[in-house]
Amino acid sequence: MTDIYKTPSSSVNIPDFIEDLNAFKRVSVWRMVFLTIVTLGVYPIYWMYTRTQILNSITSQGISSSVIRIALVSGGVYLLSPILGQYLVGHQFAAAMKLFAVASYIVFTLIWLFGLRAEITRIARNQGQSDFHANGVLTYFFQMLYLQYKINQFFDRQENHDR
Q: How far apart are CA 153 and CA 42, in angstroms?
C-alpha cells in the first residue's frame, strides 16, 4: 500500500548550457559589409537576431527577448511611419511617433548590442582567453562588424593556441 502523504517525486530536466563560442561561425567582415549594402541595412538586424538566438542557446544568461522585441517593433514603426502618418494619423502626430520610434530603436538596439558584447566577452574569457576584450567605443561605431571581427579573432587565437 502506498503512503498518500508522501512527498511526490519528479524528474526535472534542467538543460546543461555549454558556453562555447565555437557555436558561432566565422564570417568575413567584408562579406558582412557587402550584405549590409545589398540588403539596404537589413542584414545587421538579421545578424544580431541570429547571433542572439545562438547565444541564448549556449548560455543561461543570454539577452532578454523583451529588448529584442522592443527594438524590432520600434524599427518597424519607424519604417512604417510615412504610411501611418499619411493615412491613419495626423502629420504632427506622425512626426512625434517617428521621433519616438527612432529614439527607442537606437536605445534598445544599443542595449541589445552591448548585451551581446558582454556575453561574448564573458564566454571568451571563460574559455581561457583571459585577455579577450571588446572595446566599447568600437562596438558603438562599428556594431555588428566589430563584434564579428572579435568572434573571428577568438577563432584565430584558438587556432594559434592549438598549434
A: 25
